[in-house]
């Protein structure tokens, strides 16, 4: 089987309508496969924002300490193969095609069992389970796709669960209240295991601690049990110290921007401490952190003018981005290129981003879920912003670059789909 054939077969599993919450299909798949997801220890990462950074850091630190680690993240920016990697080496197209050829008959079998057809995300999750088992890996690090309890990744043992900040997002899918959303994400905390809890709103933290107590899990809370200290801006990223579970680590550096990036990376470090039950080698930790990258998260793509992309896709992410930008960058005028998804709280996102911008270029991204550009533009206009509507992210970026002076900045945001479009427009893989 060729990669393009495998990719078409996977794409055909994109549902027209999302099915209701169920683990029936993914359970049937792993039953037929003899449970590959239970053949290696696992660290499970959820949250509304920051989970990709935490997952990438977890895998990098574990690999640096000699633990061959598979990483499963979503979504991807360029190719589906980005979602699967082992110690920072992505799955190849040939490996994807081979893995799909092996998995495909099982998917077809489960399609006919009466639970409905296997979805796109269930299929890629099953592929990760299988590929990691076949490598084999000594650790699997899984980022939740959405929520937790009903996510296809939630069949792993979740020896350590990492809970990044939880807020209002995916309301239609996860529930109308913050308590509903928290309850879904708390579902990755497994009986007798460990939870690493990032700093949360008080009500969210109480609910997470209640879940841990209910299932007999140990919860390690940020600030209480571990803590970032002395964070500061450094060339190309940030320096910080970390009081971990088993040691204090000084003079650490991550090549990422934004306070949130440091705290999420720190959660990944603490997750590895929790898994190993011991202090980490400080020199190895420094070297591992210095190599961590999180594409599409306050990522600088070019300079003169400065072009930054960020996948902020909900109000909390937009607010964090707005706060972080002036801490790390300077500009004369800021040109905002924005395309958001229709299922998000668009007015709240616009309210968070508008104060940054001198001029706004609103458009649609390539996703079918992209919000109507006119409606988004009207939200910016109502706040007094100077707005231009463009036909695509590429066109919006071209317009912003044409009007930007050397000392200006261009910020592309609103969705990781928007980021992916911008990277393609600039010829970045």
Task: Describe the protein.
The protein has helices at about 5-10, 25-30, 50-65, 95-110, 120-135, 170-175, 180-185, 200-215, 260-275, 280-290, 315-330, 345-355, 375-380, 395-405, 415-425, and strands at about 40-45, 70, 85, 90, 140-145, 160-165, 195, 220, 225-235, 235-245, 250-255, 300, 305-310, 335-340, 360, 385-390, 410-415. About 50% of the residues are buried. Helix 2 (about 25-30) packs across helix 4 (about 95-110), helix 3 (about 50-65) packs across helix 9 and helix 7 (about 180-185) runs parallel beside helix 8. The longest helix has 19 residues, at about 95-110. The protein has an eight-stranded mixed sheet, sandwiched between helices. It is of the alpha/beta class. The mean pLDDT is about 95. The protein folds into two domains: about 5-290, 3-Layer(aba) Sandwich (UDP-N-acetylmuramoyl-L-alanine:D-glutamate ligase), CATH 3.40.1190.10; about 300-425, Alpha-Beta Complex (Protein-Tyrosine Phosphatase, Chain A).
CATH architecture field of the largest domain: 3-Layer(aba) Sandwich
Shape: globular
Fill in the CATH topology of the largest domain.
Answer: UDP-N-acetylmuramoyl-L-alanine:D-glutamate ligase
Widest sheet: strand ordering = 4-3-2-5-1-6-7-8
Structural class: alpha/beta
